[in-house]
Automatic annotation (TrEMBL):
Belongs to the Lgt family. The keyword Metal-binding does not apply. GO terms for biological process: lipoprotein biosynthetic process. Catalyzes the transfer of the diacylglyceryl group from phosphatidylglycerol to the sulfhydryl group of the N-terminal cysteine of a prolipoprotein, the first step in the formation of mature lipoproteins. This is Phosphatidylglycerol--prolipoprotein diacylglyceryl transferase. It comes from the Bacteria. It is a multi-pass membrane protein. Pathway: Protein modification; lipoprotein biosynthesis (diacylglyceryl transfer). PROSITE patterns: LGT. Pfam families: LGT (PF01790). The gene is lgt. Residues 303-336 are annotated as: Disordered. Keywords: Cell membrane, Membrane, Transferase, Transmembrane, Transmembrane helix. InterPro entries: Lgt. The lineage of its organism: Bacteria, Bacillati, Bacillota, Bacilli, Bacillales. It comes from Laceyella tengchongensis.
Length: 336
C-alpha cells in the first residue's frame, strides 16, 4: 500500500528548488499552446501570432490570478508580504487569471486586426485542458480540497492508493475536489472539441466554455473548505444555497471562513448566465451570422503598404490641378 506523501519539490538545481506545482503548470501551458498553435494553423493563422499572444497572456494570467487571490486574502498577506510572490505555494485564483488573460488577449487581437471571437474559439479548449492538468498542482500541494471524508469513501471512488494517501492530511482524509474539477474540465475539453467539429456560430465555443466550466465550478466549489468568501445579503445567501441544494442530497457543504458567500460560486453563476444570454441574444438579433470555419480570420483594414503609397504619392500643385481640370473639360466638350 502507498504510504508516503508526495514531496512538493520535484528536484533541486544547486540552491534552487523546482516545485511540482511549477512543473505541472508549465506542462499545462505547453500542451495548451501546442494544441492552440496547431488549430490556429488549420484556420489560417500564422503560428507566430499565437506564440506572440501567449508571451503576453501567460504572464498576465499568472499575475492576475495571484493578485486576485492576494487581494481577497489581504489580511494574511499584509502580515506576510514575503509570501505575495510565493506562487509555488499555491494561491492562484483562476478567475483572476481569466480576467487578466481576456483583457490582454482582447487588446492584442485588436492591435493585430484579428477577430476576437474566432481566435477565442481556437484557444479556449486549450485553456480548459490547461485547467484540467493544472489542478494536479493543487493535489501535490494538498490544497483546494473539500471537507473531511472517510477512507472508505475515497476507496468507493476507485481512486488509486497514491491519490487516497495524498488526501490524508494530518491524519484525516478529505474530498479530492481537485480531482472532481480536473475530470469535469477534461470532459469539457472533449465536449468543446466536439462542438467545434460541428462548425458552430462564431463565439459559441467560448460561450460554451463559460457555461460548462462555471457550472462545474459552482457545484464543486461548495465542497471546498478554502474558498475565498465575503459577507453578502441574506437574499443572496438563500439563492446560492437553493441552487446548490441538489448537491446537499449527497454531500455536506465545506466550511466557510470569514463570510457567507463563496466568491468563486458567485462569479461562476454570473458567467453561466452571461454565456447563455450571449448565445441566445446574438442569435435572436442576427449577430451570430459567422461560423467557426468561415474564412478571413484576419479582418481587412487598409494595409500599411497601401497607406504608405498614398502618403508617398506627390500631390499636384494648384497650377497643375487647374491645368488638368481645364484639359479634362475641353476633352469632354470635344466628345460631346
Amino acid at each position: 500500500m502507498w504510504q508516503a506523501v508526495i514531496d512538493p519539490v520535484a528536484f533541486k538545481l544547486g540552491p534552487f528548488q523546482v516545485h511540482w506545482y511549477g512543473v505541472i503548470m508549465g506542462t499545462a501551458a505547453l500542451l495548451g499552446l501546442i494544441l492552440a498553435v496547431r488549430e490556429g494553423e488549420r484556420r489560417g493563422l500564422d503560428s507566430d501570432t499565437i506564440l506572440d499572444m501567449m508571451l503576453w497572456i501567460l504572464p498576465s494570467a499568472i499575475v492576475g490570478a495571484r493578485l486576485y487571490y492576494v487581494l481577497f486574502e489581504w489580511e494574511y498577506y499584509a502580515m506576510h508580504p514575503e509570501d505575495i510572490v510565493a506562487v509555488w505555494k499555491g494561491g492562484l485564483a483562476i478567475h483572476g487569471g481569466l480576467i487578466a488573460a481576456f483583457l490582454v488577449g482582447y487588446i492584442f487581437v485588436k492591435k493585430k486586426n484579428i477577430d476576437f471571437l474566432q481566435l477565442a474559439d481556437i484557444v479556449i479548449p486549450s485553456v480548459l485542458l490547461g485547467q484540467a492538468i493544472g489542478r494536479w498542482g493543487n493535489f501535490i500541494n494538498q490544497e483546494a480540497h473539500g471537507g473531511e471524508v472517510s477512507r472508505a469513501f475515497l476507496e468507493g471512488l476507485h481512486l488509486p492508493d497514491w491519490i487516497i494517501e495524498q488526501m490524508n492530511i494530518q491524519g484525516a482524509y478529505y474530498h479530492p475536489t481537485f480531482f472532481y474539477e480536473s475530470m469535469w474540465n477534461l470532459v469539457g475539453f472533449g465536449l468543446l472539441l466536439l462542438i467545434r467539429h460541428f462548425n458552430p456560430r462564431r463565439g459559441e465555443v467560448l460561450f460554451s466554455y463559460m457555461i460548462w466550466y462555471s457550472l462545474g465550478r459552482f457545484f464543486i466549489e461548495g465542497l471546498r473548505t478554502d474558498s475565498l468568501t465575503f459577507t453578502g445579503p441574506d437574499w443572496l445567501v438563500s439563492v446560492m444555497e437553493l441552487l446548490w441544494s441538489p448537491m446537499s442530497l449527497m454531500f455536506d457543504p465545506g466550511m466557510m471562513d470569514g463570510g457567507n458567500v463563496r466568491i468563486a460560486q458567485l462569479v461562476s453563476l454570473i458567467l453561466v448566465l452571461v454565456g447563455v444570454f450571449l448565445i441566445v441574444w446574438r442569435r435572436a438579433t442576427g449577430r451570430a451570422t459567422a461560423f467557426y470555419r468561415d474564412e478571413a480570420i484576419i479582418e481587412a483594414p487598409a494595409t500599411a503598404s497601401a497607406q504608405a503609397s498614398v502618403e508617398k504619392e506627390p500631390s499636384a500643385s494648384p497650377a497643375e490641378t487647374k491645368t488638368n481640370a481645364q484639359a479634362e473639360e475641353k476633352e469632354g466638350q470635344a466628345k460631346a
